[in-house]
Amino acid sequence: MKQTLIELLDARVRAALTAVDCPDAPAVIQPAGRPEFGDYQANGVMGAAKARKMNPRQLAEQVVAKLDLAGIADKLEIAGPGFINITLAPEFLAGLANAALVDDRIGVPQPASQRVIVDYSSPNLAKEMHVGHLRSTIIGDALARVLRFLGHEVIAQNHVGDWGTQFGMLTAYLIESEQEGDVALSDLEDFYRRAKQKFDADDAFAMRAREYVVKLQGGDAQVNALWQKFLDVSLHHCEAVYEKLGVGLERKDVRGESAYNDDLPVVVADLQAKGLAVESEGAQVVFLEEFSNKEGEAQAYIVQKQDGGYLYSTSDLAAVRYRVGTLKADRALYVVDARQGLHFQQMFTLARKAGYASDVVKLEHVGFGVMLGEDGKPFKTRAGGTVKLAELLDEAEHRAFALVSEKNAEMPEAQRREIAHVVGIGAVKYADLSKNRNSDYVFSWDSMLSFEGNTAPYLQYAYTRIAGVFRRAEGFDANAQIVLNDEAERQLALMLARFAEALQSVARETMPHFLCIYLYELAGQFMRFYEACPVLKSEGAVRDSRLRLCELTARVLKTGLGLLGIQVLEQM
Ligand code: ARG
Fold it and tell me: For site-directed labelling of 387, which of 237, 238, 244, 456 has its Cα 20 to 30 A away?
């Protein structure tokens, strides 16, 4: 396919609108949503009629008379005040399915490529990764995969927090614990707690910690080496989590806050020169009238503190300048907690005013809500502490292993462990990705590991069932053509052809749950087909064709789950 079904129908309906003297009228093609409305609806006629003070039904009739969908649709109906209901022809959908079967992109077109920066995961390295970083990591990874599959050039940026006063304390503590021969960094969380305790209790240590900050910023070789060592250990912890999650972030993707150190004074001087940053109570501040309060006072966006220190906001300005100016981004996504929304809106506004990003570059904060426990409160350990990501993922595998063992007691343990890994990690990811990212969501082991409903295990199992059909099939024509005779077959082929649309909406709106909804509906449609149309018990060309439909469904399920970062199994 060169275009999605919606794009194809849109072009044809617009041509018909043009032919009836409504040249710029949009066609507004939407999936019909209900079988009695056909497969797609063109809803643009009403608007066009209104603009021209015409009777919409009459205009719809004129449009239908000019609408060339020969070989594409076999039924056009005018409904209500001027909707055009379009039902696609089975021969046309069969043609798409047959083309998808011999295409390694299963019929998904590649639109013109953009260079897209995806800033995701981006934990603070002073501590171990915790559940707060799970959402950014999973959502960012899924978006990066979908964008790449659609042909975009994705540059991942792991904007880790690797700078700031805490690192003075941590490096000071590192050197002291090393003198005591302590391998303290195996547990970063514990290390941080002990350093902080000492910092609070021991004035001499607190003093040394402050000296270390100054030394670190001044480029002192010894303190810098300690700092590097600490970062390296911390990144190793992150990488263990990425590895377990199957997230492809690497060292080369890490470009932390400290990478912008040299740019910070340059950015502030530049903002001053452009008359944007001014002194206010000793700090360097940009007043943004775009963000005025009720009294009409412009909000202050601080870019340099009174003591000369720089802030999170300053590094982000330097980063956007780098991403657009040096990396030449067409679009930059920031997959970060929704609570940082104001920071990003202000930063984007300022970046445009300062000329770091022109109007054609898209800057988008891809926010997300918090993960809640089953009690509806922010997700914590029983003792009320933060949940470490590594432990959470171990528990996912552990629980999945118990489930798998219950179902397949006789299966060799190694195989059960493999299934448990794929199902456990898949369940955690899918539970997150399947929710609208803007809302908070309740983390529930029981619902995410359920084999029923919109879950990873359900979809993984749907795939495995199809793989099972092929193990029992024997003797069929693996190159047979799909022919659609039954309505359930036609509906399944339609759903398969809509894969591209689903991916494009994910990329456009940065909403991975659109793909989850699609895959869940596809699995449902497959089940309806499988019930209505015997596969293995049918014969000849019908059996071959149905097997080919099964094959394409399996490929779309596997590819779609893969784009969410979720694996499938041939047997489970
Ligand atoms: N390190 C920050 C945090 O943990 C997230 C950084 C997100 N990216 C950015 N460019 N600000 O909250």
Answer: 456
- Give yes or no for a contact between 450 and 380, defined as CB atoms under 8 angstroms apart: no
- The DSSP code for 257 is G
Which pLDDT tens digit goes with each residue over 119-167? 999 999 998 888 878 999 999 999 999 999 999 999 999 999 999 889 9
The CATH number that domain 5-88 falls under is 3.30.1360.70
Tally Cβ neighbours within 10 Å of residue 55. 11
% helix, strand, coil for the chain, step of 5: 55, 10, 35
Domain ranges for the chain: 5-88, 122-161+256-366, 165-249
| Contact 366 CB / ligand 1 (< 6 Å) | no
Q: How many CB atoms lie within 10 A of CB 414?
A: 8
Nearest Cα residue to atom 9 of ligand 1:
159
3-state helix/strand/coil string of 60-95:
HHHHHHHCCCCCCEEEEEEECCCEEEEEECHHHHHH
Distance between CA atoms of residues 256 and 158, nearest Å: 7
User: Taking Cα atoms as reference points, which of 30, 245, 26, 52 lies closest to residue 145?
Assistant: 245
CATH 3.30.428.10 for the 122-161+256-366 domain, yes or no: no
How does pLDDT run across 482-511, given as a tens digit for each residue? Answer: 999 999 999 999 999 999 999 999 999 999
Q: How many CA atoms lie within 13 A of 522 on its CB side?
A: 32
Ligand 1, atom nearest to 319 Cα: 10
- Give the tens place of pLDDT for each residue, 385-444: 888 888 899 999 999 999 999 999 999 999 999 999 999 999 999 999 999 999 999 999
d(CA 459, CA 48): 42
Query: Does ligand 1 have an atom closer than 6 angstroms to the CB of 316?
Result: yes
Closest to 3 (Cα-Cα) out of 72, 63, 70: 72
| CB-neighbour burial class of residue 251 (10 A; exposed 0-12, middle 13-18, buried 19+) | exposed
